[in-house]
Specification:
single chain, 5 helices, about 375 residues, mainly beta
Length: about 375
Amino acid sequence: MRLFIPLFLLFSAGHLFGGLIIPPGQIVASGVSNSSNFDWIQTNILNNPNYFEDDSNFFNGRNIVFNPGNSDQAFLNAKIATPVAKDTGRVRKQAVIRGAGLDDYSNFGQAQSFRVRNGQSFSGIGVDTGNGNEKFEITGGSHSGSEVIVEMSVRSKSEKESYGYHKLGNDGHTVDHSNDRLIGHSPLVGNVIRLHGMGIQDASADGRVKTNPFALAATYTQEDFEATFSLSELEELVAGCLFLGWLNTAIDGDPDTISGGDRWVHAVQGNFDNMPTNPNRHDEHGVIGSAYIGTLEEYLAGTETSIAGLSKDAGVMRVGDHGGDPETNTVWAILDHNSDLAVVPELSTYALFSGLFALIVVYFRKK
C-alpha cells in the first residue's frame, strides 16, 4: 500500500477571476487564452511592481476545485497527451557542467544532443550530472515531422541562487524579492538544466517556446536538499514548497537576457495549454493545483491529477499536472515549453506556515 496526500486548502478559491486593474500597455482580451493580457516590456516587475503585488490582477488557482459544469474551467482539461516508451538504445548522457560563479546565469556546459526522427519517441532523453544520483529525464510522445535535435546543457547553481542569498519577508516567511537575484526565499537544490530543440513554433513575445507536451522528472541528492535547511520532502511537497522550477526571464521586461530582476517560479507556470487568461507567472505560489504525491510512473498509471475533482484516464498526462516523490528524491511536471529548469524548495518557515492552513485528505491505493 502506498500513501498519497493530495493537498486541499481550507479556504475556497472564491471568485476565480478577480477584477483586473488595467496597467500601462495592457492588451484587452476576453475569454481564456494562454498568455498574459499585458505587454511585459511595458508592464513588468521593475517599472510597475504594485501591479504584481495585487493578487486580484491574476488568475488564482492554487485552491481550485474542478466543477465539470463550470464552462470557465474547461481550459483546465483542454490538453491531454499520451506518452510512449523510449526507443531502443536511448540512454541518458553524462552532462558537462560549468560553474555559474556569483551570478553567471548563462554559463552552461557543452550541450548533450539527442537526435529524434519522425515517429521516434522523446522518452528517455536526459542527462546524469555526476552529482550523486542527480539526473533529469524526459517522458514524452512520438515526434511527428522533420528530424529535430534536442539539447540539454547544465550549469551549477550560482552563489546568488544558493542558501544564504535567500530573503525572507519582515514576518519571517513571506517572499521578499529584491530584484538583484533570481530567488526570493527559495534557494535552488542542485544544478540547472537548459532544454532546447523541442519547439513547435516561434518564441512568444515573453520568450517562451512552445513544445508538444512532455514530462520532465528531476532527481536531486539528499545532501543537496538538506543543505537548504527545509522541512522533510513530504512536508515540503504537501505544502506546495518543493517543485520543479522554471526561470522566467521576462519578468524584468527583457525576455532575451537574464538579470537579477527575473525569477524562479513553478515550471508549470510557463505552460501554454490548460492555462487561463492572465496567469500568474511571477510568484511561485501562483501555481494552479496541488502536488500529486508519488512518482511520475504512478501518476501516469493512475487517474488522479493535480486539480481537486478532476480525473484523467490511466496512461495519459494532463498538461499542468505536477508532483514529487520523497522516497526517490524526485519532482516532476507535465510541460509544454523549453526553458531553464531546476529543483526549488521553500524554507521550512514558509512550508510550516502554509501547512497550518492545509486540509490533508489521506487515502490509500494499492501499488
